[in-house]
Amino acid sequence: MKVLVTGGAGYIGSVTCAALEAAGHTPVVLDSLLSGPREFVEGRAFYEGDIADRSLLRRVLSDHPDLDCTIHMAARIVVPESVAEPYLYYRDNVAKSLELFDELVALGKPRVVFSSSASLYAPAEDFEVTEESPLDPPSPYARTKHMVEQILTDLSRATELRAVILRYFNPLGSDPGLGSGVYQREPSHVIGQLTLAAMGLKDAFAITGTQHPTRDGTGLRDYVHVWDLARAHVAAVERFDTVLHRVAAPSTVLNIGTGRGVTVRELLHAFETVFGREVPTVEAQPRPGDAVGAFANVDKAREVLGWEAEHTLDDAIASALAWAERRHEVLGYR
Ligand SMILES: NC(=O)c1ccc[n+]([C@@H]2O[C@H](COP(=O)([O-])OP(=O)(O)OC[C@H]3O[C@@H](n4cnc5c(N)ncnc54)[C@H](O)[C@@H]3O)[C@@H](O)[C@H]2O)c1
Questions:
Q1: Theoretical Cys-Cys bridge with 133: which of 12, 95, 119, 129, CB 3.0 to 4.6 Å?
Q2: Secondary structure letter of residue 39 according to DSSP
Q3: What is the pLDDT of residues 176-225, one digit of tens each?
Q4: Is 31 in the pocket of ligand 1 (CB under 6 A)?
Q5: Is 39 close to ligand 1, i.e. is its CB under 6 Å away?
Q6: Atom of ligand 1 at shortest range from CA of 92
Q7: Of 25, 147, 12, 40, nearest to 86 (Cα)?
Q8: What is d(CA 114, CA 232) in angstroms, rounded to the nearest whole number?
Q9: Which of 29, 39, 73 to mutate for ligand 1's pocket (most ligand atoms within 8 Å of CB)?
Q10: Can you give the pTM of this predicted structure?
Q11: Where are the alpha helices (DSSP H) in 1-48?
């Protein structure tokens, strides 16, 4: 199959392209390189530009009339920036997605797999959320994801558009070939912070929030190996029509996580075991907007998509560390 991947130069997009290739499919990347690095599209069909550029989309489709499906990942993703610059987020994530969907329908390419987020969920008492659980997106970023879900639902009722919406939990790690991974120079994500503290490059790893109503007081997440997440897209593309047939609807939402909640302290211990060194820690106040967290009920993904996570947390940590060692060869910086 041939698959248009918007945002295919990004972290999850580039790993998804590698997973599509590993399954014998051909990704075609559309990315503005707003944040994703050019190195991640090397060797792939690549169009540099904006998702709302209709003439560019028409060119992509005239070059690749055999596209089967679009995976729409392109977005701005920095939560604090979305609070400071909501206009940019609503324009790029919502308004531009609308242009993309409308043009795809006009071009007769109505199958869309959309990258949504577990950050949409309202806090749940036992932390487990199904696709039917209440939503309460806490930031402009999360609200853009909610709005695009609603747009896809409405378009799918009124037009030829069909949508499989994947709500990702917390991706970790790299692709097994170590071709791409997290590319930010100063990683704010948890494994980057743990690595810096373990290597003495920062004084200590800050456990932000220790009074949460979890088993050890720290926040809880469902960490999914990014390769498993990428494989979920392969399944969504391959089984697109079957999935919608099974749910008997023109669009559907699927949780993509492991089904297991891991607290910050548990993550720290797993990291120390895999890394083989203790990490100095300090306890700190929760950051503004920090959520207690959630983990996925993955029954629907298992039943409808035939997908489940195969990798362990230790696998994901080892993969993140292997990429951290290698990434200067790909990106030119450590
Ligand atoms: N990383 C996570 O933890 C996480 C969790 C849930 C959902 N998601 C979603 O997954 C998707 C991919 O996330 P990621 O972590 O790989 O982010 P990323 O920033 O690495 O990738 C996004 C890509 O989109 C491109 N892009 C942005 N705006 C564009 C535009 N208007 N036109 C063309 N290209 C554009 C960027 O250059 C970048 O390469 C996003 O939609 C994000 O909201 C990510």
A1: 129
A2: G
A3: 999 999 999 877 788 889 988 988 888 999 999 999 999 999 999 999 99
A4: yes
A5: no
A6: 31
A7: 147
A8: 12
A9: 73
A10: 0.97
A11: 11-22
